[in-house]
Structures are given as C-alpha cells and as structure tokens.
Amino acid sequence: MRAGLVGYGKGGRYFHATLISSVPGATFAGVVTRSPERKQDVANDYPGVATFDTLAELVAAGVDVVVISTPLASRRALILEAIELGVAVVSDKPFANDAAQARELVEAAERRGVLLSVYQNRRWDSDFLTVRKLIDNDALGEISRFESSIERYSPRSVGKASGGGMLRDLGSHLVDQALVLFGPVERVYGELRFAAADEELDHTFFVALTHANGVVSHLSGSCLQNTPKPRFRVSGPKGVTASTGWTVRKKRRLPA
Prior knowledge:
single chain, alpha/beta, Rossmann fold, Dihydrodipicolinate Reductase, domain 2, six-stranded parallel beta sheet, 7 helices, 33% helix, 26% strand
C-alpha cells in the first residue's frame, strides 16, 4: 500500500506521518506542502520521501490512499479532489463544516466508488479502552449515564479557525466515543458558548445524547476552563468508574 499525506503542520507531522511510516508493508509515498520550511522538515524527518506542491502531483506519482491533514477550511475541496482522482481518503476530523457538507462528501465517494473515512484516533486512548472493557465485562451493570469531558485553559484556542470550534474539533471525538460504546442516538440536546456576540466559533459546548438503548451521554468541552471535570464518569447499578486527565494512545494499528 502506498500512502500520501496532504499537509505537514502539527497534525500531519506528529500524528499522521509517524503512523504512516510505521505500518508494515506500507510505503510513505510523499507529502503535499508548498511551504519551503515544511519541505525541509519532511527531508529531515523522512529522508527520501518526496514532497509535492499539489495533490494531483502526489496522486500521479502513485498512491492508494491519501490522508488529508490541513485546516478545516481547505478540507472539503481536497477531499473532493482526491475522490475525483479515484484514491481512498482518510480525513482529519472534523471532515466537514456541517451535516449538509458531510453528506455531499459521502455521496461523492459513493458515486466514485472510493473509500472515505475519518481519522478518529481517540478510539484507541487507553482510558477509553479501559471504560470499554469495563462495560463489555458488565463490571458496572447496565449503564444509565455516560459522562465525557475534555476541558482545558487555553485562551489562544478561542476563535481558532483551523479546528472549527471546540464542538467540531474535540467534541467530535467525544460524540464518536459515545456512539462506539452505546450505538445510535434518538434525541440530541446541545448548548454552545461564544466569547463574543459576533464570534462564529464556540469555546465551550455541552451535548446530551439519548441512545436507542436508553443510555444518556453527557458530553462537554471547553478551552476556557481551568478546573476540569473528570475525563470520564460512567454510572451503573453495580458501581461508578471515573478517570481524570488526558491519556496516551496505545500502540495499536488500524486495519487498512
């Protein structure tokens, strides 16, 4: 399998490139970046890995899959271009600005017959895997409430366009984890907070999900909170488990 990477900022360099280069049998085929500094970073980090100015040039060099790790505003066009070029796509989350755009991308991939997936790496966080194991082993009994929160104090993150706001950026992980654990959702309630009346990107969110199986998930996040809630709290008739702080991901690879 030949894999290419589009974007070599923080996400591309420290998350995606390290994973691509470590997969047995895979070839790190190249990186798309126009920045001279980042081209040099690629040369220093991965001698021999080619760099390209455009996605089309990367695909022409021969790849089976491309990973899109650019700011949110540019992802839609790049995903559509990759789909049209006929290669599989893995996109950073969130891969769309809204539900309508997400449907557009999914439908484009279906029409072209190519794979489109989203990089949901926090399914492999060690604390999440521990919660999942406790639930699977019925250690807490039938779960009634799942609480998940990512809170930090980072004023510089307020209004940061590259992530699309806290709900889209980190909240997408929490929603994904809740769906993995408890399945489809029947009802949704949400709240967003903004730093100013004209601010378009949220800094704090709360989402309540009522799953089809009866579990209620309370998901929250903020980049203006210096007294964070537990990362996880899971309640059942046999007991409650809670964890605090962020975690590292286990060294576990996704199937191709």
